[in-house]
């Protein structure tokens, strides 16, 4: 195995890695239709609807879901469910795999807009929030249809033998979970677990990561129980990071945590260096941490460079020495 790939696995296992793993030796991709732009009829289109009938609007280059698929949770059975086996689905993955040096890089395949983000795009966040309380059967039916789609995509991913699976769903707000923990346990935990169990059962040794922006403190024990390998991006100002590390220690590798809301975009290179050293000191546990930005929007070039230098300097001083 390539030394960088082997070192990545050692970081995950906390098995005497030779250095901090940065950058991660993987190449990521996903199915056609995962992103809003896949259904865009032309590059200059300002509004369009995707396969789920969700309306998207381009606002000065940023794309947002602005029009739900249906106007009421009472109409969940009218939501169109795309064909997961559309011949176009795996074309981007086939192209990625064809040009990938798998001796050097892991193949990482993703599920964007996994469950929560998909369902709030379909119904709107307020309408879906009401549905969990007023019509839990209807909310569950819609989530089941989305997850059946996810599992059908997962079935097709198997033929590429991915080493990594990236599940992307923003369950948190800046200061709290996006729903009550009880609702997460009822509506999302079993469906997330079903997909994780599917991959574990069919691929065996596979690294599974969850990307969730925002505060996820209240569901950390559940993420450990489900058996996730990596949690990203560990937003510093949305979570109690020392407590997050305590709960996940020895079980989940943390990826991110370099403050992308304040330090990286607005701090000095010296501030960035201090941030990197602080997070590496806090989160490294003989491995178990992949330092990277929480977010990289609006970061000056000199701060990216300062972050790169600081990660490598910390590694030389604390892991390689």
Task: Describe what you observe in this structure.
The structure is a single chain. With 321 residues, the chain is of the alpha/beta class. The protein has a domain at 3-31 and 78-232: Alpha-Beta Barrel (TIM Barrel). Helices cover 42% and strands 15% of the residues. It is built from eleven helices and ten strands. The chain has helices spanning 3-13, 91-98, 116-123, 125-134, 136-157, 181-203, 220-226, 241-248, 263-266, 269-283, 301-318; strands spanning 26-30, 47-49, 55-59, 62-67, 106-111, 164-168, 207-211, 230-232, 253-258, 289-293. Strands 1-5-6-7-8-9-10 form a seven-stranded parallel sheet, sandwiched between helices. Strands 2-3-4 form a three-stranded antiparallel sheet, with no helix packed on it. Strand 7 (207-211), helix 7 (220-226) and strand 8 form a beta-alpha-beta unit. Helix 4 crosses helix 5 (136-157) and helix 10 (269-283) packs parallel to helix 11. The longest helix is centred in the middle third of the chain and has 23 residues, at 181-203. The radius of gyration is 20 Å and the shape is globular. It starts with a helix and ends with a helix. The model has no long low-confidence stretch (mean pLDDT 97).
Radius of gyration: 20 Å
Q: β content, as a range? A: 15-25%
Largest sheet: 7 strands, parallel
Outline type = globular
Helix content: 40-55%
Number of helices: 11
User: In the CATH hierarchy, what is the class of the domain at 3-31 and 78-232?
Assistant: Alpha Beta
Structural features:
single chain, 321 residues, alpha/beta, TIM Barrel, 3-stranded antiparallel beta sheet, 10 strands, globular
